[in-house]
Specification:
Layout lengths: L7 H9 L6 H13 L4 H14 L3 H13 L11 E5 L10 H11 L4 E5 L9 H8 L7 H11 L1 E5 H4 L7 H7 L4 H5 L10 E5 L3 H14 L3 E7 L12 E7 L2 E7 L1 H4 L14 H12 L5 H16 L6 H13 L2 H21 L1
Parallel strand pairs: 1-4, 2-3, 4-5
Antiparallel strand pairs: 5-6, 6-7
Helix pairs in contact: 1-3, 2-4, 4-11, 5-14, 5-15, 5-16, 6-13, 7-16, 14-15
Length: about 350
């Protein structure tokens, strides 16, 4: 049903003049996009104008709430955590947050990983998990069962946010990071109240933690590397916002604080989905080095947010144990086996 009071000039005009939208206006615009009523040019103008001006907490909250209004929501039945990167950093690294999610699951977290195929990189989380042999497009209840029984389930964004199909082609055609890079991690279909999110744009870190606060997250981290990574980096300092008990704090950490040696950017490079899948297998299989170090470091905030450790130091210890004990690798094997069984049930 169309909104007779909505008009694109009433939204685009203020944005082009550098003025912020209130939450209801942002919500209304996103509702137009997700209804299929918006033209391609209108969607492109909206997301480019938002990006150029800089998104606010009110705007992002309105956009996320519109996404939830149109989403398939899943009750997993247990508390879950999500760990994600916004992408868009153009760094060419392997899939760090996906590897970290499996490590966190091996440490005892229940991970509801929300993600998609690559939009502006060579391999998104869906691409690398598919290359690993993980079914990425199971029915919602099957994915919830994976989380409960194996500790990890992948919530493939197009299945849970079907209305985003109207914006998807525009995002791909633009080929640059847009607001959708930042919305995905905020709109987990399992309504994860514990989150660990890496951002590629430092100015968005404070905005995103503000949105999580507004949406009622219980325990969350939003962070970025000084080198531009949408991860906790091991090449230099990282900056972290933490939301706990409704309060936000901010801190700086170095690789030395995490107990790992500094890496060079070249140490962290990945490739296509198959190459990145091989890297994930090698890390979970016990290989050491800079790639393992950064995966362990990035598992830590998810482990803390899930309530399994009080701080990064014990969380990193749990992440190391997750790999060395074989628990993280076991999670991957269980997800593959149970996932194939559930897929066979769906197809029978």
């Amino acid at each position: 049903m169309s909104n007779p009071t909505f008009s694109w000039p009433s939204v685009l005009g203020p944005l082009l003049a550098g003025r912020d939208l209130d939450e209801p206006s942002a919500h209304a615009a996103m509702t137009e996009v997700m209804s299929g009523r918006a033209e391609t040019a209108q969607i492109a103008a909206f997301i480019v104008a938002l990006r150029a001006k800089g998104e606010t907490v009110d705007e992002m909250t309105g956009l996320v709430r519109a996404m939830y209004d149109n989403a398939v929501i899943v009750d997993v039945g247990v508390p879950v955590v999500d760990t994600a990167g916004t992408g868009g950093d153009r760094s060419g690294t392997f899939n760090i947050s996906t590897t970290a999610a499996l490590i966190a699951a091996g440490a005892g977290a229940r991970v509801a990983k929300h993600g998609n195929r690559a939009a502006s990189s060579r391999a998104g989380s869906a691409d690398v998990l598919e290359a690993l042999g993980v079914p990425i497009d199971l029915a919602p209840e099957a994915t919830a069962r994976l989380v409960r029984e194996a500790g990890f389930g992948f919530f493939f964004a197009p299945r849970y946010h079907p209305a985003m199909r109207f914006a998807g082609p525009v995002r791909v055609q633009l080929g640059v990071p847009t607001v959708f890079n930042f919305l995905g991690p905020l709109a987990n279909p399992a309504r994860a109240r514990a989150q660990a999110i890496g951002v590629s744009d430092s100015r968005m870190a404070g905005v995103m933690i503000g949105v999580l606060q507004r949406l009622g997250a219980h325990h969350a981290f939003v962070y970025y590397g000084e080198d531009g990574l949408d991860e906790l980096t091991t090449t230099g300092p990282s900056y972290i916002y933490r939301l706990r008990n409704g309060e936000v704090t901010h801190a700086e950490f170095t690789p030395e604080d995490f107990g790992v040696p500094r890496a060079s950017p070249g140490d962290l490079l990945g490739g296509d989905a198959d190459e990145n899948a091989a890297i994930v297998r090698s890390i979970l299989g016990g290989d050491t080095g800079p790639k393992r170090d950064i995966a362990v470091v990035n598992a830590a905030p998810a482990i803390v947010a899930a309530g399994l450790a009080d701080g990064f130091e014990p969380a990193i210890d749990l992440a190391v144990q997750s790999i060395d004990s074989g628990a993280a690798h076991s999670v991957l094997e269980q997800v593959m086996a149970l996932g194939e069984s559930l897929r066979a049930e769906e197809e029978s």
